[in-house]
Amino acid sequence: MKRIILFFCLCLITTLASFAQTVLPAAEPETSFLIDLGSFTGIVALVSTLVTQILKVVPVISASKLAKILISCGVGMVVCIIVWLLQLTPLLTGYIWWQVLIYGLAAGLSGCGFYDVIKAIGALFKKE
């Protein structure tokens, strides 16, 4: 078993060493923050980033899971509407405004974790 683990570690080190040989030019450190809005994953990443920053600014929301979910869904819908209105991505081109809202809702739910949504809704119906 030790030989197999050693073999895989050596393969990994060899692969990483071959990629590490490329020399990067000495330049200023990159300080820009780039999120590709051309995919659903990029929109979810933007929504998650914005919701995280909102939760840092307003710590009262962190106590309620349902409030986090609602904030995430709202931010997702606002982001998608803004991206659609400004035509920043071909992903939402051809959609009607209500389809963009549904897309934003899905992005918001994905950003906050769909499992948390189901868990919070289930907690509303559970008897204590």
SS-derived structural category: mainly alpha
Output the number of helix runs: 5
Please bin the fraction of helical residues: 55-70%
Gross morphology is extended
Low-confidence stretches: none
Beta-strand residue percentage? under 5%
Largest sheet: none
Number of strands: 0
Order of helices and strands: HHHHH
Distance between the termini: 50 Å
The pLDDT mean sits at: 80
Radius of gyration: 21 Å
Essential attributes:
67% helix; mainly alpha; 128 residues; extended
Brief digest:
The protein has 128 residues and is mainly alpha-helical.
Written overview of the protein:
The longest helix has 21 residues, at 65-85. 67% of the residues lie in helices and 0% in strands. The model has no long low-confidence stretch (mean pLDDT 80). The protein is extended, with a radius of gyration of 21 Å. It is mainly alpha-helical. The chain has five helices and no strands. The protein has helices at residues 2-20, 40-57, 65-85, 97-112, 114-125.
Q: Could you outline the blueprint of secondary structure elements for this entry?
A:
Elements: H1 2-20, H2 40-57, H3 65-85, H4 97-112, H5 114-125
Helix pairs in contact: 2-3, 2-4, 3-4
